[in-house]
Amino acid sequence: MSTVNSINPYTHKEIESFKKHTKQDIAEILQKADHRFYLWRETAFSKRKELMLAAAKELLENKQEYAETMSLEIGKPISQAIAEVEKCAWVCEYYANNAEKHMADVTIETDAQKSYTKFEPLGVVLAVMPWNYPFWQVFRFAAPALMAGNIGVLKHASNVFGSALNIEKVFKRAGFPKYCFTTLLVSSDGVEQIIENPVVKAVTLTGSGPAGSAVAQTAGKHIKKTVLELGGNNALVVLADCDIDATVDICVQARFQNTGQSCIAGKRMLIDEKISEEFIEKLLVKVRELKSGDPMDKETYIGTMAREDLAAELEQQVNDTVKAGGKLLMGGKRQGAYFEPTIVSEVTPKMVMFNQETFGPALSITTFKTVDEAIELSNNSRFGLGVSVFTTDIKNAEKLVYRFDEGAVFINSLVKSDPRLPFGGVKESGYGRELSSHGIQEFVNRKTVYIN
Ligand code: NDP
């Protein structure tokens, strides 16, 4: 099919129909992007900084416009969509102000008169991105990539083509030269051919394991670097000495923000059995207070899920868990793409909600007797993106950090991405890092210079 229709998951009405790029369109765009690279890498950091700050300003000035498209396309509550656009402005500002420092030469003393490492951009980098944070996932790639002197081409998820074009618009309105950042309207079956094009030097993908594996396979065949940010099944480890009220609030946000559709959401709650009764009672009160409704309403916290098929998949996972002995404490029902906030307790590692990623507003609860058991349960996952540990004994918690097989350990906080901190996983959550100095240095040639 040469068109893609985007459907509003809340109203089920068609929003827009997009004409996909043809193979010839794509070849031409890639050619022009490559040509742009050789000019773009000559620009001074001061010029790139000026443009990136203009992109941040554009985002903030028109956040309502950009947020509305996201809400219409994926049922994301508008207040959370606005916050997402604001966070994108932050990452633009962060790299505008820090890229030059992160990319500075590093002198290494050897027997040469002078020897050092230079960080140079690679060229055109393809980003294959998901729908769950339609702006943020792209900006956290684009801001460092462009500041490093690379060129970005985006293949966004097929249900967010409106947002994909808006992102291109942000850079255009900010004054970036043409083809510094281009959106390709293409389905997943067109990705292989893009990666194979010699102009494309590297690929970054955020999304599911099968998508990551397919992209890395093609990139590997052509010896092109990949960064993969895949799924997660983060645990929320609630120790007996935690501050219960504060922890409840953080856990609710960790699981239910973005209607639960986040790779770093806390999906498996592990609670010390000594406090589980009191904790669960308070948790249920807070989750019942979450307001479901029209994503365009400022008061809505739980919107619809992004697509009906994703909600149906979650329904199946919850039903399977309950059938296997999980205790449904609240929710569990679906209406189209809307899924009620759901909590299932007495979940064991053999049950679906424990051993599969649930990508929606459903939390599983498992109790433990000892800290060793909690760590073992937390590590009992194919994924390794992050974990949250809640305790008032921070010294002891820090001693436990090395025992978690994760890309990140957050103590008394939900796992979150921050432009200043590296972000990424281990195990089937992927490899490579985004954000901070680590993110900008992923798509560079670390050139050794030796002068005798
Ligand atoms: P996908 O992983 O299928 O989609 C993510 C991106 O990859 C989209 O741009 C998609 O394009 C593209 N893609 C998919 N398959 C391929 C392929 N074989 N080759 C090249 N590109 C591909 O996510 P889904 O929308 O299907 O969601 C399914 C599950 O993935 C979720 O339930 C969740 O578990 C996980 N997921 C994880 C995310 C994360 O942040 N880590 C984000 C989103 C999903 P297209 O849309 O055209 O198919």
Task: Summarize this entry quickly.
By secondary structure, this protein is of the alpha/beta class. It has helices at 23-40, 45-61, 63-74, 78-102, 136-148, 161-174, 191-196, 209-221, 244-256, 276-288, 308-323, 352-355, 371-379, 394-400, 436-440; strands spanning 3-7, 14-19, 106-107, 114-121, 124-128, 151-155, 181-184, 200-206, 225-229, 234-238, 266-272, 327-330, 334-335, 338-339, 342-345, 362-368, 383-384, 387-390, 409-411, 426-427, 430-431, 444-451. Helix 2 (45-61) packs antiparallel against helix 4 and helix 9 (244-256) crosses helix 10.
Write the layout of secondary structure elements.
Blueprint: E1 3-7, E2 14-19, H1 23-40, H2 45-61, H3 63-74, H4 78-102, E3 106-107, E4 114-121, E5 124-128, H5 136-148, E6 151-155, H6 161-174, E7 181-184, H7 191-196, E8 200-206, H8 209-221, E9 225-229, E10 234-238, H9 244-256, E11 266-272, H10 276-288, H11 308-323, E12 327-330, E13 334-335, E14 338-339, E15 342-345, H12 352-355, E16 362-368, H13 371-379, E17 383-384, E18 387-390, H14 394-400, E19 409-411, E20 426-427, E21 430-431, H15 436-440, E22 444-451
Parallel strand pairs: 5-6, 5-8, 6-7, 8-9, 10-11, 10-18, 11-16, 15-16, 18-19
Antiparallel strand pairs: 1-2, 3-4, 4-22, 9-21, 12-15, 13-14, 17-20
Helix pairs in contact: 2-4, 2-6, 3-4, 4-5, 9-10
Number of strands: 22
**What's the total helix number?**
15
User: At the fourth CATH level, what is the homologous superfamily of the largest domain?
Assistant: Aldehyde Dehydrogenase, Chain A, domain 1
Summarize the main sheet. 7 strands, mixed
